[in-house]
Amino acid sequence: IYDVLEINDNWRNSPQVIKNIALKELTVESTQIKNVPCFLFKPNFKYKYFANTPKTNEDILFVYIHGGGFVNGFAEQGAYLIKAISRRIGCSALAINYTLSPEVTYPFALNQIVDVYLEIIKNHKPSKIIIGGESAGGNLCLALLLKLKSLNLELPKMAIIASGFLDLTGSGVSYVTNANTDVSLSGGQLSYMANAYLMGEKVKKVSVSELKNPLVSPIFGDFSNFPPIFFSVCSDEILYSDTLTAYQKCKACHVKTKLVTNKNCFHGYMALGDFFEEGKLVCNDAAKFIKSVFKLKTINLIPE
Q1: 65 Cβ neighbours under 8 A, 6+ residues apart
Q2: How far, in whole angstroms, is CA 266 from its chain's centroid?
Q3: Distance from C-alpha of 247 to C-alpha of 259, rounded to nearest angstrom
Q4: How far apart are alpha carbons 86 and 159 in whole angstroms?
Q5: How many CB atoms lie within 10 A of CB 252?
Q6: 158-162 and 129-134 beta bridge pairing
Q7: What whole-number distance in Å separates Cα of residue 255 and Cα of residue 170?
Q8: pLDDT, tens digit, for every residue of 138-186?
Q9: Burial degree of 200 (CB within 10 A; 0-12, 13-18, 19+)
Q10: CA 225 – CA 156 distance, rounded (Å)
Q11: Strands (E), the chain
Q12: Backbone dihedral region for residue 134 (phi beyond 0: left; psi -120 to 50: alpha; all else: beta)
C-alpha cells in the first residue's frame, strides 16, 4: 500500500473492509471544521465489543491524524486504532481528512490541522485532548505541538505516535541497518514522499536544509515543555531510528514518555488496534499510559 511510484484516485478510496467491519461498532458523523473534512467517532455502547468500556470518559477526545506518507491515506483508516483506544477508556475521537500531496505542499496540510485544533479548543479543553497518528500522521502530530508552542498556545494533554515518519532527511542509522528487514517501506519510497510533500509534482530535488525544518522533520525540533508522549514502533522497520531518537529527546527534555517496541512486525502496526495480537498488546500499554496521564480510575484492558 506504500508503493507510491504511481498515485491514483483508487488508492485513496477507503477499503470496503474498514467501512464494513471497523466502523460498525462506532457511531460516525461526517462534518467540516474550518472547511476541512473530519469524522467524529463515538463508541456505540449497544455493541458487545464495548460492553466493559468505562462510560465516564466521553469528554476525552482522541484527535487522530492518519498516515500514508503525506501522499496517501484517509481519515477512516484510523478506525481500528480509534476503536481500540475507545474500547479501553471510553473516549470519543475526531479524525482529520487533511489534503494530500502532491496536489498541495507543505505547509498546507499542517495549517489545516492547526486550524482544526484551534477550532476544537473553542469548545473543548486542551487538557481533555489526546492527539495521535501513525507514520506521516505522527510527524504531523509533533509538528502540531511545535507550531502550537511557537504560538504560545495551550498544548493537548498528551500524544500517541505510532511508527512516526519524523526525519525526512533519512539520517537515522535504521535507514541502512533495516533496509532489508522492513516489509512495508523502502528508502526510495520515503525519499519520494518527502519530495512530494515539499515540492509537489516538481522534478526539483528538495534540499537537506529544507528537510531539516523542524515543522517538516520534527526530530530536529525543541521538545522541551512537550506534553506526555507514548511511542510505538517495530524494531525491524526503516523508521525505527526516528522513533528512538524522538523518545530519547523526550527523556532529555524531562518529558513524560514511554516507548513500546516489537520485533518481526511491520510499519505502523499499532494502527490496526485489536485486529491482531501485537496491536492489542500495544494498545493495552497505551491505555495504561493514558490512565496515568489523565489519572483515570478505571480502564478496560483486553485480556492477553
Answers
A1: 95, 96, 98, 113, 131, 132, 133, 137, 138, 140, 141, 144
A2: 15
A3: 7
A4: 15
A5: 10
A6: parallel
A7: 24
A8: 999 999 999 999 999 999 999 999 999 999 999 999 999 999 988 888 8
A9: middle
A10: 12
A11: 26-33, 36-43, 61-65, 92-96, 129-134, 158-162, 229-234, 257-262
A12: beta
pLDDT in tens, 78-112: 899 999 999 999 999 999 999 999 999 999 999 99
Cα–Cα distance measured from residue 89 to residue 52, given in angstroms and rounded to the nearest whole number: 10
Cα(10)–Cα(166) distance, rounded to whole angstroms?
27
Q: State the amino acid at position 227 in one-letter form.
A: P
Joined grid coordinates for residue 292: 496515568
CA–CA distance, 134 with 232 (Å, rounded to integer): 9
Quick one: which of 230, 259, 283, 233 has its CA closest to 78? Answer: 283
Residue listed under C-alpha cell 465516564:
56
Please report which confidence band the pLDDT of residue 264 belongs to, taking 50, 70 and 90 as the band edges.
confident
Radius of gyration from C-alpha coordinates of the chain: 18
Distance CA 222, CA 32 (A): 32
CB 70 within 8 A of CB 101: yes
CB-based burial of residue 264 (10 Å sphere; 0-12 exposed, 13-18 middle, 19+ buried)? exposed
pLDDT, residue 253, reads 98
CA 286 to chain centre: 13
Cα of first residue to Cα of last residue in the chain, in angstroms, is 29
Q: What is the DSSP letter of 20?
A: I
Asked if 283 and 274 touch (Cβ cutoff 8 Å), the reply is yes
CA 304, CA 286: separation in Å to the nearest integer? 14
The DSSP bridge partners found for residue 170 are none
The DSSP code for 132 is E
